[in-house]
Design brief:
This protein has 6 helices and 4 strands, in the order αβαβααββαα. The protein is of the alpha/beta class. The chain has a two-stranded parallel ribbon. A two-stranded parallel sheet has the order 3-4. α2 links the parallel β1 and β2. The protein starts with a helix and ends with a helix.
């Protein structure tokens, strides 16, 4: 199934390159076959110069696993003497996540009527605007996206501040 998906994305890669789309995969690559890992690396490599849009594909992804992996990476650096505990900052954590180098999402649309983020980008979504719709993903139309974006455009992004703090 994953090989079929990779073939589909590889078939679209020339169009992605032409449109300036950079593809990034996040998640547990180590659990995929060598062939699938190779396909994913090829897709990422061929689209690496894209500068108009980044398409993030989350496979075998869990935010809890991502954070645990980041903590292990940081602990390894500290154990080797390359990092003191007091030097660990939010940036240190962010740079150790699967999404390192990818901006945090401004807007997350959750389909299916669920009112939760379901272990998805927990660290990165701290200041994201959330939109919940009962529409299921396969039925989410361009018109539904437009409605979501219109609502988003009317919001006042405060990034954790109160309205009084902004004024």
């Amino acid at each position: 199934l994953m090989e079929l998906f990779c073939k589909s994305v590889m078939d679209e890669t020339p169009e992605l390159v032409e449109q300036g789309v950079r593809v990034r995969m996040i998640g547990r690559r180590d659990r995929f076959s060598e062939k699938v890992r190779g396909h994913l690396a090829k897709i990422e490599g061929e689209t690496a110069a894209g500068d108009r849009l980044t398409l993030v594909l989350a496979f075998d992804y869990s935010s809890r696993d991502e954070i645990a992996t980041a903590v292990r990476r940081i602990a390894e650096r500290a154990a080797k003497g390359g990092l003191k505990p007091e030097e660990i900052t939010e940036d240190t954590v962010s740079e150790s996540l699967y999404t390192a180098g990818i901006p945090d999402p401004d807007f997350i649309i959750r389909t299916s009527g669920e009112q939760r983020i379901s272990n998805y980008l927990t660290f990165q979504s701290a200041y994201s605007e959330l939109y919940f719709t009962s529409t299921y993903w396969p039925d989410f139309t361009p018109e539904a996206l437009h409605r979501a974006l219109v609502e988003y455009a009317g919001r006042n992004r405060r990034f954790g501040l109160t309205q009084e703090q902004i004024q």
